[in-house]
Write a structure and sequence with these properties.
It is a single chain. The protein is mainly alpha-helical. It has one domain (24-101). The protein is built from four helices and three strands. It has helices spanning 18-33, 39-55, 65-84, 89-101, and strands at 3-5, 11-13, 16-17. The protein has a three-stranded antiparallel sheet with strand order 1-2-3. β1 and β2 (11-13) form a beta hairpin. The protein starts with a strand and ends in a 9-residue tail after the last helix. 18% of the residues are buried.
């Protein structure tokens, strides 16, 4: 990919908006996780992932997918007990698996 600038001075990669490229991968991960019976849980996990970044002052222009994936696993640790008690290891594995399915290198399940 080649970095370019639009006539308005916005950065693009081969003519595609950076935010659009970067947001589509986490959104694809979310679609792999969300099932009707667990929709509220996964929506809260996704939102918690975004909130963690803000609370810790780590909102950055270009976080890596690996960072976002790790933070999503942490969000399962925060949200999971309210839904499933201590039985959240399978949900952490689901997050890791979904990220691997879209080509992001993450740790294997414990």
């Amino acid at each position: 990919m080649e970095k370019q600038n639009t006539p308005n001075g916005e950065e693009t990669w081969n003519g595609a908006n950076i935010a659009h490229i970067n947001s589509s991968i986490p959104n694809l991960v979310a679609t792999k996780l969300i099932r009707e019976d667990e929709r509220d849980f996964w929506a809260e996990v996704y939102f918690e992932t975004l909130k963690q970044r803000r609370r810790q002052g780590r909102i950055s222009y270009k976080p890596t997918f690996e960072q976002f994936a790790a933070e999503m696993v942490t969000a399962v640790s925060i949200v999971g007990p309210r839904y499933y008690g201590d039985n959240i290891s399978d949900y952490k594995c689901k997050v890791r698996s979904a990220w691997r399915q879209v080509g992001v290198s993450v740790d294997q399940c414990e």
